[in-house]
Amino acid sequence: MYRKVAPDAPPKADPDGPARLAGETESEYASRQARLEAAARERMREKFGGAPLPAAAVTLVGSGFASFAARSSATLRRRGARRVVI
Predict the structure, then answer these.
(1) DSSP secondary-structure letter at 63?
(2) For the chain, what are the domain ranges?
(3) How far does Cα 28 stand from its chain's mean position?
(4) Whole-angstrom distance, CA of residue 32 vs CA of residue 76
């Protein structure tokens, strides 16, 4: 009724992945990671250009109501509105 399935072979190591390859020394691992990082940086530069990100793109923004309320009140203050307490 059930088919016997051969066990899966262990996955092969990804030479472009973050894990250390079998038999790779620490210096080989570090140089491979540096090369991969440089290649990724080059791909990002080609895709988006060499311009730095605008400040709004790297600003940390919290989540939840407190963050929303703080941003809303700051916007209202910039527009000259007064805070209304209900």
Answers:
(1) -
(2) 26-78
(3) 25
(4) 51
Q: Which two tokens stand for residue 30?
A: 């570090």
- CA pair distance 55, 62, nearest whole angstrom: 16
Rounded Cα gap, residues 47 and 56, in angstroms: 20
13 vs 11: CA distance, rounded Å: 6
Using alpha carbons only, how large is the chain's radius of gyration in Å?
Answer: 26
Tens digit of each residue's pLDDT, the chain (86 residues): 667 776 776 667 888 888 888 899 999 999 999 999 999 999 988 988 877 666 556 555 555 555 656 666 666 666 665 555 55
Amino acid type, 33: Q
- Strand positions, DSSP E, the chain: none
The whole-angstrom separation of Cα 25 and Cα 77 is: 58
